[in-house]
Amino acid sequence: MKQYLKHDPWLIVEEDFNRNYNEITESVMSLGNGRMGQRGNFEENFSGKTLQGNYIAGVYYPDKTRVGWWKNGYPEYFAKVLNAANWIGININIEYETLDLQTCEVRDFRRVLNMQEGYLERSFVALLKSGKEIQVNAKRFCSIVDDEAGAIRYSLTPLNFDAKITIEPYIDGGIRNRDSNYDETFWDEVRKETGYGEAFIELRTRKTGFHVCTGMCIEIEQDGARIDFQSQPIRQEKYVANRMTLECLQGQETTIYKYAVNLSSLNYDSDSVVSEARKYIQRITGKGFERMLIEQKQAWADKWKMNDITIEGDVAAQQGIRFSIFQLNQTYTGEDERLNIGPKGFTGEKYGGSTYWDTEAYCLPFYLATADQKVSRNLLRYRYKHLEKAIENAQKLGFKAGAALYPMVTMNGEECHNEWEITFEEIHRNGAIAYAIYDYVRYTGDVHYLAEYGLEVLIAISRFWSQRVNWSEAKQQYVMLGVTGPNEYENNVNNNWYTNYLAAWTLRYTTEAVGMVKELDAEKFNELCDRIHFREEKEITTARHIADHIHFPYDENRQVFLQQESFLDKELMPVSDIPKGQRPLNQHWSWDRILRSCFIKQADVLQGIYFFEDEFDPETLQRNFDFYEPMTVHESSLSPCVHSVLASRLGRKEKAYEMYLRTARLDLDDYNNDTEDGCHITSMAGTWLAVVKGFGGFRIKGDQVILDPNCPDNWESLAFKIRFRGALLEIKATQTEVSIQNFSEKNAEVLLYGKSLTVSAKSQQTVKRATGLPIKSRKK
Amino acid sequence: MKQYLKHDPWLIVEEDFNRNYNEITESVMSLGNGRMGQRGNFEENFSGKTLQGNYIAGVYYPDKTRVGWWKNGYPEYFAKVLNAANWIGININIEYETLDLQTCEVRDFRRVLNMQEGYLERSFVALLKSGKEIQVNAKRFCSIVDDEAGAIRYSLTPLNFDAKITIEPYIDGGIRNRDSNYDETFWDEVRKETGYGEAFIELRTRKTGFHVCTGMCIEIEQDGARIDFQSQPIRQEKYVANRMTLECLQGQETTIYKYAVNLSSLNYDSDSVVSEARKYIQRITGKGFERMLIEQKQAWADKWKMNDITIEGDVAAQQGIRFSIFQLNQTYTGEDERLNIGPKGFTGEKYGGSTYWDTEAYCLPFYLATADQKVSRNLLRYRYKHLEKAIENAQKLGFKAGAALYPMVTMNGEECHNEWEITFEEIHRNGAIAYAIYDYVRYTGDVHYLAEYGLEVLIAISRFWSQRVNWSEAKQQYVMLGVTGPNEYENNVNNNWYTNYLAAWTLRYTTEAVGMVKELDAEKFNELCDRIHFREEKEITTARHIADHIHFPYDENRQVFLQQESFLDKELMPVSDIPKGQRPLNQHWSWDRILRSCFIKQADVLQGIYFFEDEFDPETLQRNFDFYEPMTVHESSLSPCVHSVLASRLGRKEKAYEMYLRTARLDLDDYNNDTEDGCHITSMAGTWLAVVKGFGGFRIKGDQVILDPNCPDNWESLAFKIRFRGALLEIKATQTEVSIQNFSEKNAEVLLYGKSLTVSAKSQQTVKRATGLPIKSRKK
């Protein structure tokens, strides 16, 4: 845990340069716009600890799988989003000295990520070995308006000298992934072009053949006025630059504007990426930095208007939730249905930018409540389009007749992960994909999605569950052998309660969905039956039989669900009994010891109760929470959020707050000692869940919004907005009252603390917590 | 399965050159002498399919572990015996044509491994592209008399031409392991020397720093007389040779004698390996090829006198058992207690020449019955010397207080394997090491071994078991969670019957051994207690409590032991139900499917019944055999032998014979399609078990030899020799009678078919099987 970044409601601030933490800061201060992104690297050369990282959504490489001992069924490759050409680079040379913060003294250093307006700025004074002092101010952003472009303003002011300064803005395509299995290069050069103040390089990924043109255009100002300059084009292997030498006087500010674009064959014809990049860059250069920045601020203001959550009285908590919302918005906009949410977004290389069950289980609710319905629909459609591959994947593992197993990790629908206990056994992911369909339909009321796409996916997943269980003669029940639940600290267990529950639930929900679709669009249903050979009666009878006769391990004594069949054979003890210095367990204990222990990496039974909370009474939740939570080490970033939500539901505010901070400030405080690899983007959705579903007590039941706000004691207030079926509501809760603002044109019915409340169109209602009675109602 | 090698009682014969099978033949025709060995490669250049392989016992390299996803506790390296300098090479050039069986026509090819006399010979006529025909006869051996040396006689006869032939005998140290994790080179060159007809190269292994000098000396004969020749020394990187050009006339035989030595720093000072190699080579060259060969034949005759097993009436079975005995003798002589028995011996690189539980569980009985007692004692001492490392290994996994976990795979006592389900969980290996101590003491009566070494190992292993179990509140018994039994087609199971049985047995036997040692040598016992902090009362009480209260899964219904607790939740079906074309399962089914299935890779419950057969009545054996055998796919080479022994015990001769052939001819017929990687040396001990313990019905109970011979119906007779406590007995069984020859100076008491029989010193007894009565007694 590190706490060198300043607490601030809207900014992430590094004051004084923390060399040793630089890779952490780079992760935290990453910029992105859903289409491209980059780590918070320096523009000028830096010889210290750094991971130069630029990433382009959807541009990936199938890196040959690294395996110790091959198991039949392992995939041949692991697809990863590639580190792409560095477009921010501007090398600075002052009379034979290179500006490099590693080798000079640094004064007045400040690096700030402005989350409100969506840019990164940095200022410092460098004291070179020669004694020269130079002031640098840099500002840059990835535009969310022109989402294939970025812009940099980089200013130099000699403080105690006049000199010729050589400036070399460049694009470097000679990058390697730090995360590469066999240390291979993933990019080939196709073409490069240089011109006056501009340069373009076209690279192609090996194997996948994506073309990407990265281009730049340079403008220079001195004393606030645009100047002409001599520019020497530089062309080296996978590298293009313009070199210019400028006379810079003491106290005079020289400003370099660097406009850059990244155009890929995902969106353009391969042959035209360079010419399109030229056009694009002309357009944005024409707009100019200041105009682009104004548009950027405006666009971010619009986003915040919909998404912002305010917490008064607790800056650390406020910063945490805003950071989470900011990064989620930077990572995924929902505009392109081919994309998804990589666990590290554009902040690092680990986990390869691929898609995990995180999307469905943790991220979807955020997009449902804060973005246009088409965004979550696109997330669902992403899996629909991978259905064929999921069926192939199941076939490879011996399943048949249209059964689908969605991959644990994927880029294009094919499985990428190769640990048998996860790849083949952590199959609950399939259930999360089914659950997301239910969650979406429940939230949006868009039952047509079922007819169009959802049911086909549900049937394929149900077919998988039907084949994956087997009848146990011994138990006279169906059993599911050899699985890994969400708690990856148990592997290859039998009858994981969560997985069995999800499976039974999927089978039932599929049956329901069949009914709904038949009623909604019989013709479409018949067409589907024909196409996928759905034998309704037989498959539904089987599904019901399994759902009704599957084994759920249960402890009669404690009246808790058992995480897996043999859980009670373990030595049960609380986390507090683990000797000091032995945590995190995954860094101190051998794998078998972890597996044999009762300690839980992340919510497992509790994840199921969280998903299906309506199906369990509070006493059941409480008993299971009290049984499992003390044994949970939360060594997954996806664990504390679920516990925070459930603790809120149980009215355990302290526990809920503790768990909230752990998820909200995970990266800001480098809680798990791994932020240098990148931020935990998908778990940021968990932060949002902890606030909105947890402290806000927001949920949907039937067609109704339910709210049970319950802030931590140290918060003055919590306010958040939610979209629900065309309505936009803002809920603000203090320790004493709750007000609900309805921005929409029609009345909203909510259930607040269990009581019905109508908030009229365009008006606000305030309710006293103690009495539950409205105290104010105001037309807006 | 391939059947291109001729059936013969003493020879392995390849007639006509089988290019595509060459790597299989090379494995089968490997030569070795316990100190060094090599595959059946060609001397002359060969550009076809070949794995050039030369191996020196004990000279290994710690190859960096290859891992897909790292688990805490994995070892850093996998130690492997290295492919070493090629010393057999003799390149032949005939007027610009290279002799290469890949590029010329081959006539009258014959490659023969003579198991009786311990050499490999080869003859053929090569028809070169130019039309020249040349006859080649080659013979070579690894001397078991001078066990750091080998010798080759290589003769050329031009059949239809006179020509200058260039001959280049060489030593090539530029070899790479085919089995290398990161494609690295493992050898560095230290020195090379060349002289008239001789050359030496000294190489050093990277990291481990073993020095090996490989040297050669050449002599040439024409028309049966030694000739002088011009020799041009060749020195290239890691390569030394002598090149000589000889005038060869049509019909004239030119013979090259190549003497070679491999001296390693395992046995010599690093600085003197070259000078010692010079001396060594002078000595053997002085002896000469013919003399060396006579000594070789004599030494092999001596070995066969002790070890041979004859089977009359079934050449395939005869060849199989001789091949097994031959290869076991080539692999391990027991003379050097630093060495052990690699699963591939000197026949290939796979499994790295390391030590597995195969040694204790399968090989020890062979050496107990056929070799001097010191050989098996050395095998035990090998593990004793690794005890400290085994304790460290257990510590790494969280065990304490002197608990030892022997590694799954090792070269120097450190664990090399990295699959969590095996490395950390296949812990029954620890039991096999305890069992071997019991087996040795029972066989030899050498209880002093317990006092000297055995008890210390037993206590350390028992400490491991005591810590590895935990008390299950649910069961009110001890349980052992998360293990992999001998059947590696189940992983991470709870309460594997075999492992629990072995653990309980070890705890009891350790208690007994404590008693024995206290009685035998109280002083030594006290010294041991002090040294290893053995708290006798406490540890023994705990051991007894665990042994008495450990859970053994059992099916009351079928009255069989359950392989693991959840076995009956599986869908049970016989192997015959597996659809055609889906075997072997490990090549057709994904790993999870294998794990969920009931199919068994190798004996598991049955392995336990085999080890402790006195503790189970025949009905119990029969029920368990009938339950498990039909579900067993025998996809481990260590499986059929145990089933053969047990089937013999049950009087199921057909099943016993089927299983025998599967183990005895595994490599000769390339049963598993993998002999090209090397032969299955440790499973060859299983062949011996199937014959001697199975068909011979040989076992030891108390101080007595028990015999229940029961040959397969198609055998005329079976004869084998056993050593037992100073006695040497030969048992010959036909379908009607059994005769026992006692070669020793004192009478031998045996229990034959349940009846006591005294075979007087130096005499023979023959018993009619039908009556069980002696029919002949003859003083020898």
Automatic annotation (TrEMBL), chains A, B:
Residues where substrate binds: W357, D358, K601, Q602
Keywords linked to the UniProt accession: Hydrolase
Gene Ontology biological-process entries: carbohydrate metabolic process
UniProt-listed SUPFAM superfamilies: Galactose mutarotase-like (SSF74650), Six-hairpin glycosidases (SSF48208)
InterPro entries in UniProt: 6-hairpin_glycosidase_sf, 6hp_glycosidase-like_sf, Gal_mutarotase_sf_dom, GH65_N, Glyco_hydro_65_C, Glyco_hydro_65_M, Glyco_hydro_65_N, Malt_Pase/Glycosyl_Hdrlase
Glycoside hydrolase family 65 central catalytic domain sequence ranges: 322-688
Residue numbers annotated as active site: E488 (proton donor)
Residue span(s) of domain Glycoside hydrolase family 65 C-terminal: 698-759
GO molecular function ontology, one term from the record: hydrolase activity, hydrolyzing O-glycosyl compounds
Residue ranges occupied by any Glycoside hydrolase family 65 N-terminal domain in the UniProt entry: 14-265
Keyword Transferase recorded: no
Family the entry assigns: Belongs to the glycosyl hydrolase 65 family.
Protein name listed in UniProt: Glycoside hydrolase family 65 protein
Organism, as annotated: Larkinella terrae
